[in-house]
Amino acid sequence: MPLPAGALRAAAGPGFARAVAVFSFTVALSTQPVRCVHQHRPPLSNLSANCGSHLHPVNMFNSYNVKFYHSKALTSPYPGSHVERGQVPEDKVGWLIEWKDYNPVEYTAMSVLAGPSWADPQINDKGFSPKFNERDGEVERRSLNGLYVVENGRPRNPVGRTGLTGRGLLGRWGPNHAADPVVTRWKRDRSGNKIAHPVTGKNILQFVAIKRRDCGEWAIPGGMVDPGEKISTTLKREFEEEALNSLQKSPEEKAELEKQLHKLFSQEHFVVYRGYVDDPRNTDNAWMETEAVNYHDETGETMDNLPLEAGDDAGIVKWVDISEKLKLYASHSYFIKLVTEKWGAHWSEDPGPECCE
Fold first, then answer.
1. For residue 206, what is the DSSP state?
2. On the chain, which terminus has fewer CB atoms closer than 10 Å, C or N?
3. Cβ distance 88 to 70 under 8 Å?
4. Where is each Nudix hydrolase domain found (predicted)?
């Protein structure tokens, strides 16, 4: 059900400010340094019900207690265009900050306005009555971060202003759901022994990375969840299409790929992250959310038998050594860091504060 602006705060009552104060675990989803402060973690149900869209970006959390703020979602020109966003000062990003002179640029790409199957119509088009904050037929319009405000018939970015209204390159009003498979293995020498970093002594982890055709940045292979599609299906499909070029394979070759990948994708896996993503395509009315899942090939045997071949949106695909020096698309560096923590692998030569136990 659409929530009018103010509804969440009213529902929260006088305890709203106190609830906000509890949250102080700070991890910025961008290329900025990560800072961590331990505090009590409230129930996830409270995060969804009370803290959705009315929190300042530095107080808006996903289910992993990660604070958000806009960095890449404020960059200009907007991807694939010459459109410049309206300037948004850091202290004016949050919707709770009154800004009467806010004058964002309206932009939706022609590729979206052309009406492809993956895109919504314009918000005022006759016959288009989206059910925001609900599953709308086969289209998932619920956010992984809880309820969001709908203002003047348009969903409002739960993290804050971006300087751009409309949908940009995104097909859906509101959340646009993606899935990112993080496929990893240990870096090994010719004898099959794990290779440790000379400074930290920790084993080096590698992941399958693609170079995106649209922007030239390195990224985790992944893509949009099709209407009605299970996340597990999207994760496997996107990896096959982008890292193994399955779309260009014969039926026999594709069947062999499926057989070999089944072992990897059916084993126990690690959900790295679920929620909002600071993405350069985000606007005030449309934004990216993702579920990143780690599939780890402990022995390396499965992936050794699968030659990487770029396909679909990927220009290049290869195994990449993981470290903090990686510069990846959107929030992918943060996802990769979480994977190294899971496996106790090398990340940084600087140990930094021991804060994220």
1. E
2. C
3. yes
4. 186-342
pLDDT in single tens digits along all 357 residues of the chain: 555 554 444 444 444 333 333 322 333 444 343 333 333 333 333 223 222 222 223 334 444 455 667 889 999 999 999 999 999 999 999 999 999 999 999 999 999 999 999 999 999 999 999 999 999 999 999 999 999 999 999 999 999 999 999 999 999 999 999 999 999 999 999 999 999 999 999 999 999 998 887 778 888 988 899 999 988 889 988 888 888 878 888 888 888 888 888 888 888 899 999 999 999 999 999 999 999 999 999 998 888 878 787 766 667 888 999 999 988 887 889 999 999 999 999 999 886 655 444
Determine the Cα–Cα distance for residues 251 and 351; give it in Å rounded to an integer: 49
d(CA 71, CA 212): 20
What letter represents residue 210's amino acid? I
Ramachandran class of 79: left when φ > 0, alpha when ψ lies in -120 to 50, beta otherwise: beta
> What is the Rg, in whole angstroms, of the alpha carbon atoms belonging to the chain?
21
Alpha-carbon distance of 331 to 325, in angstroms, equals: 14
Closest to 148 in 3D by CA, of 331, 41, 285: 285
| Residues comprising the chain, all counted | 357
| The architecture CATH gives domain 72-343 | Alpha-Beta Complex (3.90)
